[in-house]
Prior knowledge:
Layout: H1 4-45, H2 47-51, H3 55-78, H4 83-104, H5 110-124, H6 127-138, H7 141-152, H8 154-159
Amino acid sequence: MQPASANTSTAWLAVRRWWTIMPIVFITYSLAYLDRANFGFASAAGINHDLGISKELASLIGALFFLSYYFFFRFPARSTPSVAVVKKLVFVGLILWGGCAALTGVVANIPSLMVLRFMLGVVEAAVMPAMLIFISNWFTKSERSRANTFLILGNPVTVL
């Protein structure tokens, strides 16, 4: 049997873990969803008219993100073996992700927009698997479903 102080410190660590890790996971995945939809927002704001993008080309540009995200790089990102590698991957990925997202706002031609949308999908492909790895390493089996719910809750909250 453990002393009462050990139970108190364990409970405090559990609460601290929820208030430290989950906001970061939630915000990161919310921003990931926003990046998926940012070309749609830009289209509604007039980027298609400004750059002379046809409806067909707008569909291709919108699909480039998902092509790189789901088909080319999502599965290799899941095969990351260690937590240390995941931490470095997320750090570098978030830096590149922010750069690609910022550059998307200042594109002046169609080819650069296409490259940036594709690269944004490549960089963001590591986000979801990395968040799931973090959750699986920081939360017990009984807490993981609730933690995963908070992760996925980022999507509808972002839409709101």
